[in-house]
Amino acid sequence: MDWTGTISIVLLFILAIMFLLKKNSSRNNSSHNLPPGPKTIPILGNLHMMDLKRPYRTMIKLSKKYGPIFRLRLGFQEMVVLTGYETVKEALVNQADAFAERASTPFFKEFAKGFGIIFSHGENWKAMRRFTLSTLRDYGMGRKTIEDKIIEECSVLTKTIKTYAGKPFEIQTVTTAAVSNIIVSILLGKRYEYEDATFLRLLKIISENIRLSGTPNIALYNMFPILGFLLGSHKKVINNRNEFQDFMQTTFIEYLKNLDENDQRSFIDSFLIRQREENKKMTNGYFHNENLKAVVGNLFGAGTETTGGTLSWAILLMMKYPEIQSKVQEEIASEIGIRQPTIEDRTKMPYTDAVIHEVQRFADIVPTNLPHATTMDITFKGFFIPKGMQIIPLLSSVLHDESQWEKPYQFYPEHFLDSEGKFVKRDAFMPFSAGRRICAGETLAKMELFLFFTSLLQKFTFQPPPGTSKNDLDLTPAVGFTTPPIPYKTCAIPCS
After folding, report:
1. Cα torsion at 115, 116, 117, 118 (round to 10°)?
2. H or E element at residue 492
């Protein structure tokens, strides 16, 4: 594997000494019925058998041998992997409290410092998540006010795409900017032009960090933090985080100048007003600037990359399967015509709704999920799992579970349609995870995907560039924490 070149013989020798001196923390398998797993080798554990670029693929293969619950050790990291719909649902939904903690890894600890929502723990996590969900609702998440913002952004996006006049271009840049503007409108109370230099820089920072977070170098850093000086990726991520937070700090200062509790313009305003209230009470609470910077970063990143990546997959798959694209356009023409699509149209458009859901399933945009941890010792499906164990609820295994999906590795919208062509909800549709740590922006993402997708296919037919056939289109996911498609070009042909 190409990543092995980064580990020198000298460092392996040092690690071997550390390993021999380190108190053996592995738990005795004879005293507890721990989940099974592949044999480990000194220092590396099971690292030698992992595809570090796409670890979820190795985990799915291992589940076929060791069952839906198995143990791995990668370097000094021990974890339990949960695979398949039934197992993941039992853990995250039926026993949600026991699996509600976020795993603490060297990279997450250094990056987040325990602040924000995504990587925080305990009371800090509860307070920030509670405030975030209620404030997002206040600013229209799932309501008409945010729908109007999305519709306005759809109009800007389609006008921008028209300027390419059917010539090949990379659509990911403008679609990601459009999606990002929705969460930006909530966070900052404004939108950016797609070519705005500051906006493009923020988008680049977020994209780069999410990509790097899923690379072999970060995985190796989590396993062997001592290698940090050799593996530059985590330093790049930290530098990007600092640049983003410096921008946010400047923004907060500007917002404080015009702060009016009777005229709250943004999520940041609401947080700063709550911060002022907490300060008056002299409480050592959670509404401080470190949490504000972290929460805004969490929402900006999560509200941009996952939905933006899914929309990129949607356009690529429409080029790959033009017959499906035609059926969506026929339904749009029949149910909507030339007027602007609204969220109320979704219930009248089962095929389009099925296609969007299948895009999300097929795209598998966060395949490994964010790692959880157990909050207590627990016996789970006959196996003992100790408190604090890192848990990988493998979303990719749920979205490709052969017992749940007729054609798990094919793009097949009929997964979400019954024999009469009506839309069918599927319990194993879990792209937003589940349980206590389910994605806070699920409602917003669903609204965005429907409105952006239908608006684009109402106005354009997407085709491969001249000289490229649909069979040439590459459906290999990019390497990263999220898995958007590899960058591609499309031709957006205006519909007559």
Report:
1. -80
2. strand 491-494
SS (H, E, C) 121-156: CHHHHHHHHHHHHHHHHHCCCCCHHHHHHHHHHHHH
Of 191-195, 197-201, 437-441, the range with the lowest mean pLDDT is 437-441
Both tokens of 33, joined, read 């019925």
Please tell me whether residue 101 adopts helix, strand or coil conformation.
strand
pLDDT band of residue 207 (cuts 50, 70, 90) is: very high
300 contacts 183 by C-beta, under 8 angstroms:
yes
Is residue 125 exposed (0-12), middle (13-18) or buried (19+ Cβ within 10 Å)?
buried
DSSP states along 150-190: HHHHHHHHHHHHHTTTT--B-THHHHHHHHHHHHHHHHHS-
Cα 58 versus chain centre, distance: 20
Query: What is the distance between the alpha carbons of residues 413 and 421, in angstroms, rounded to a whole number?
Result: 11
Q: Structure tokens of 143?
A: 């309501």
Q: How confident is the model at residue 12 (pLDDT cuts 50, 70, 90)?
A: low
| Among the listed residues 167, 142, 168, 172, the one whose alpha carbon sits nearest the alpha carbon of residue 157 | 172
Rounded to the nearest integer, the mean pLDDT of the chain is 91
CB burial of residue 117 (10 Å; 0-12, 13-18, 19+): buried
CA-angle at 163, arms to 157 and 165, nearest 5° = 120
Query: What residue has token string 């404030």?
Result: 135
Q: What is the pLDDT of residues 321-333, one digit of tens each?
A: 999 999 999 999 9
**Those residues with Cβ within 8 angstroms of residue 75's Cβ, 6 or more apart along the chain or in another chain:** 43, 44, 45, 47, 220, 222, 223, 224
Residues 6+ apart with CB under 8 A from 212: 218, 233, 234, 236, 237, 480
pLDDT band at 233 (very low <50, low <70, confident <90, very high): confident
How far is residue 20 from each of residues 24, 48, 74, measured CA to CA in Å? 8, 19, 16
Query: What pLDDT band is residue 1 in, cutting at 50, 70 and 90?
Result: very low
The tokens describing 67, both together, are: 């069952």
Residues near 359 by beta carbon (within 8 Å), at least 6 away in sequence:
310, 313, 314, 317, 411, 449
Residues 450, 277: contact at Cβ < 8 Å?
no
